[in-house]
Amino acid sequence: MYCYRKVMDDLYWVGANDRRLAMFEGVYSVPDGVSYNSYLLLDEKTVLCDTVDAAVGTVFFENVEKVLDGRHLDYVIVHHMEPDHSATLEELIRRYPDVRILCNSKTKTLMKQFFTFDVEDRVQLVKEGDVFSAGRHELTFVNAPMVHWPEVMMTYDKTSGTLFSADAFGTFGALNGALFADEVDFMRDYLDEARRYYSNIVGKYGTQVTAALKKASGLDIKYLCPLHGFVWRKNIGDYIDKYQHWAAYKPEETGVVIAYASVYHHTENAAECLAVRLREKGIKTVMFDTSVTPPSEIISAVFKYSHLVLASTTYNAGIFVQMEAFLYDLVEHNIQNRTVVVIENGSWAPTSGKLMRELLGKCKNLNVLNETLTIKSALKEDQLSQLDVVADAIDATIPKKTDVTKADEKGEGVDAGAPVLDPKAMFKLSYGLFVLTAKDGEKDNGCIVNTVIQVTEKPNRIQVAVNRNGCTHDMIKKTGVFNVSVLAQDATFDLFRQFGFQSGKSADKFADFADYSRSANGLTYVTRGTNALISAKVVQEVEFETHTVFIAEVTECRVLSDVPSVTYEYYFAHIKPKPQPVEEKKVGWVCRICGYVYEGEVLPPDFICPICKHPASDFEKLQ
Ligand code: FEO
Predict the structure, then answer these.
(1) Cβ(80) to ligand 1 under 6 A?
(2) Which atom of ligand 1 is nearest the CA belonging to 167?
(3) DSSP 3-state assignment of 597?
(4) Tens-digit pLDDT profile for residues 477-502
(5) Among 2, 17, 99, 210, whose Cα sits 20 to 30 Å from the Cα of 398?
């Protein structure tokens, strides 16, 4: 029997739920089931947005037929070719032989790979920005590559303000009768599954999700219709905010995920002892046994919290199997911006700590603390002080009330895991080059500066000289806060061009620039070709003819990489392109017979070629 719901007057949800699926994509358990959403628009033309997984085809086709109520199906838009949304496309065509397919060229390629029907004959290609009129509704197409496959696109219905967002904004979990997120307590009951869905399905593609969010931010979205989970029509901004955190790999909460791998409970015991010490300091902890909890759940927790402790026994001279599987998965998901501590155990040759550190080295922007703990078989009384040191080191990276910035107070743009205050970041300062960033309202800007100096250590203060003609200068004057991204030797010239060769007064330097994140103060910092971030709050200004020197208190400092800083000298020697030597133009005459060149403006009329003995008449002037 059909089972559909109305989204609005002329738009219907015609999807279905599956509660029997054990493993989504064969990998992720879905104990609460999953929904496959499809939407049918009844305008002058009838337009179906995607189909469903083969497992729920029966009720889906009943829904489509019932909602069409005898009308033809004119179009189906294929936003995503993954079979959980397209497996029933061929059957749809059999049932509605006149239906046309609206999709992009990448989708068409995949469609030919998956199906045997005549795709060419059926498809009407669309591209980003194209407008399709269904009658009253005007649909625009928005590419969203790698959210979650390369062909993914979204459709924005300008008439109703509906964004058909493909996998983005989806969640695990069947709908259980509700269709709208506001019919349930989403943040209490479904957010964890939404995070697990996001982090595992598209978590690897934060940059691409950020790009899609940027496009979406220009749309007036009244309805959000994803391919899994609930339709959003209220408080959409709350959910988008979660996505912004996840896509930027920013923690939602300060807290420590302790993931351990233990054969005979001794490593587990050390993890427990650390958890107790952290709790006694008022730090939130969650614990996972990697042998029991699937990686997808631990990955989801890591996306939520600011800190991660990895405790593993050594096994076959390596990392314990389940911990290794989890870690590979985590690294593959591109985790960033976390503070990490490693604990290793080994009865005769503990190596898991070193190996875990090596794996973590593949991730960007991880603050892996030096403080560690090596256990030989079992934790002993005399090692408890080492555990205290580890707990203290974690505690030192937890933001305290006194570190709270204005942005924290306002609750805007706050990275819950920051500010980190790692004094090692200050060692990155040299007579080098830096990207100085600031923000005024919604506008971000940045410029290249070459004078950032630590003035005093206690209190930790720096000074920066900024050209008074610049946009960044004016922003700092107005807001009193800035970030310094210390440029490293792996910086490429395009970074200097991006921030140094154009004016923020006429260009939006962050419009097409993806390699940035936001620190706790809400300001941008550059994440590529940089080795440290320093956030600061101005306490004093001194004006010179051309520059203002801002003296500022450091509110956050973080090491981003181990690549040495760029010095001014290094920049000129290795990064700035060398001017191409201008080949000196020879003035002279060339022998047409043998190629001998006579250098000189005037060729004597009686000249004889010394090579081939031909006369001056066989020479011609060099061009
Ligand atoms: Fe729900 Fe990427 O498929």
Answers:
(1) yes
(2) 1
(3) strand
(4) 999 999 999 999 989 888 998 998 88
(5) 210
Find the farthest-apart pair of alpha carbons in the chain and give their distance in angstroms, rounded.
Answer: 107
Does 333 sit in the ligand 1 pocket, CB within 6 Å?
Answer: no
Residue 204 scores a pLDDT above 50: yes
Distances in Å between the Cα of 456 and the Cα atoms of 419, 459, 463, 544, 552 are 19, 6, 10, 22, 10
pTM (predicted TM-score): 0.66
| Chain segment 519-559, per-residue pLDDT in tens | 888 899 999 899 999 999 999 999 998 999 999 999 999 88
Kindly state if the Cβ of 84 falls inside 6 Å of ligand 1.
Answer: yes
The Cα 188–Cα 249 span in angstroms is: 21
Question: Could you please report the per-residue DSSP string of 355-379?
Answer: HHHHHHTTSSSEEE-S--EEESSS-
* E strand residue ranges, 280-386: 285-289, 305-315, 318-319, 338-345, 366-368, 373-375
Distance between CA 412 and CA 409 in Å, rounded? Answer: 8
pLDDT at 103 over 50: yes
Q: How far apart are CA 208 and CA 229, in angstroms?
A: 21
Atom of ligand 1 nearest to the CA of 202: 2
Q: How far apart are CA 252 and CA 241, in angstroms?
A: 10
Report the nearest-CA residue for atom 1 of ligand 1.
167
Any atom of ligand 1 within 6 Å of the Cβ of 148: yes
Nearest alpha-carbon partner for 368 in 331, 404, 318: 331
Q: How far apart are the first and last CA of the chain?
A: 86
Q: Measured from the CB, is residue 167 less than 6 Å from ligand 1?
A: yes
Q: Are 546 and 466 in contact (CB under 8 A)?
A: no
Note the pLDDT of residue 513.
84
Reported as a single tens digit per residue, the pLDDT across 334-361 is 999 999 999 999 999 999 999 999 999 9
Cβ of 152 less than 6 Å from ligand 1:
no
Which residue's CA is the closest to the ligand 1 atom numbered 3?
Answer: 82
Output the CA angle 424-426-429, nearest 5 degrees: 125
How far is Cα 526 from Cα 495, in angstroms, rounded to an integer?
A: 9
- Give the model's confidence band at 472: pLDDT under 50 very low, under 70 low, under 90 confident, else very high: very high
CB distance 195 to ligand 1 below 6 Å: no
Confidence at 410, pLDDT banded by 50, 70, 90: very low
User: H helices then E strands: how many in the chain?
Assistant: 18, 35
Among residues 394, 403, 407, the alpha carbon closest in space to that of 367 is found at 394
The mean pLDDT of 308-328, rounded to a whole number, is 97
Rounded to whole angstroms, the Cα distance separating 343 from 387 reads 10
Cβ atoms < 10 Å from Cβ of 215:
15
What is d(CA 477, CA 518) in angstroms, rounded to the nearest whole number? 20
228 lines ligand 1 (CB under 6 A): yes
Model confidence band, residue 405 (pLDDT cutoffs 50, 70, 90): very low
Measured from the CB, is residue 558 less than 6 Å from ligand 1? no
Query: Does residue 382 have a pLDDT over 50?
Result: yes
Residue 151 tokens, joined: 């062909």
Q: How far is the CA of 103 from the centre of ligand 1 (A)?
A: 16
In contact, 487 and 561? CB cutoff 8 Å: no
Which atom in ligand 1 lies closest to the alpha carbon of residue 166?
A: 1
Nearest ligand 1 atom to alpha carbon 25: 3
